[in-house]
Design brief:
9% strand, HD domain protein, HD_domain, 50% helix, globular, tRNA_CCA-adding_enzyme, Hypothetical protein af1432, two-stranded antiparallel sheet, alpha/beta
Amino acid sequence: MNWSELTRLSQDEVIAWAELQPWSQAMAECQQDAQWHAEGDVWTHTKMVCQQLRQLDEWASLDSSDRQLLLLTALFHDAAKPATTIFDPESGHLRSPHHAVRGEHLVRNVLRQLDCPLDHRERVCSLVRYHGRPAFLVERDDPAGEVIRMSWLSNNRLLYLFALADTRGRKTTSDSRPEENLLYWKLVAEENECLDRPYSFATDHARYLYFKQPEPNLLYVPHEDFACSVTMMCGLPGSGKDTWLAKYHPDLPVVSLDEIRKEFNIDPTDDQGRVIQTATERCRQHLRSGTSFAFNATNLLRQTRSRWTGLFADYNAQIHLVYLEPPLSVLLRQNRNREAAVPESVIQKLAAKVEPPTWLEGHTVTLSTAK
């Protein structure tokens, strides 16, 4: 099965395909706490949610792309519960901590294997990761800030519609998920004009700083006088980062971790302390002089990127994140043609952990399959 074949299936056929996959079979063997899921195992709940999607009043008005996004979200939203479910002796209940985060990685890897288009895949991933947020908005200290943040990470209308189906697709003895709470999500998003689109900030810099400040102010419009700009490349080995820079920014000086390793004859499996120290100092030299440059490394994890973007922001640089991910077959072929090819087993392990950059991390963000 590939993405093209999957998109030609009816909704019932997609569910039938999913039922044969190992991740759904694991769900069928995973029981849930009866207080919140008296219907039983995770796969039973998943199929109930799929049924509830089609009973939503808004379902008929959605386009085929949004229907597909919601169906895939339903299939994968609890797919990581088998890997995360534990018994909590203090409460006497089954819990599945961080299953949404683990689910994001699971669905990304499944859809990558199917050659799902990058943009569509990441929209599904964001819905899976944040699918539980609407139910708990009333508990947030800053409800408006929550929906504004989510408007740049996902789609508030689809999160709301999925939350309705998720709530209705279960049997529960608890009243902890009243639909009024979900309606509150929709109302707050509408009030801030970000139900169907990202919240409109005055500038990209205003957005960037809003998400970085401990006490953000929506009314603050910062003065823009950047010292320089940094183009931060992100992507798996063999994704074409060097080629992209040579094509679109041939004149930019580049700080490259691979080149520094080559310069000092340091293997990627060796201690990287000297590599990171050297890269940091070279970045600082460009930043101090106000010279725009590119920073080229895999930069696959948010935590790793944040250390570098924090450095760039300290020097008042404008930050452009570029994430490249061609189809996996193309990436593996390009890697084999590299001077220093990375073992494919290593690439597969890295791919399983990758976190593409989001709009909370930079002034501009590009996700591309292009070289």
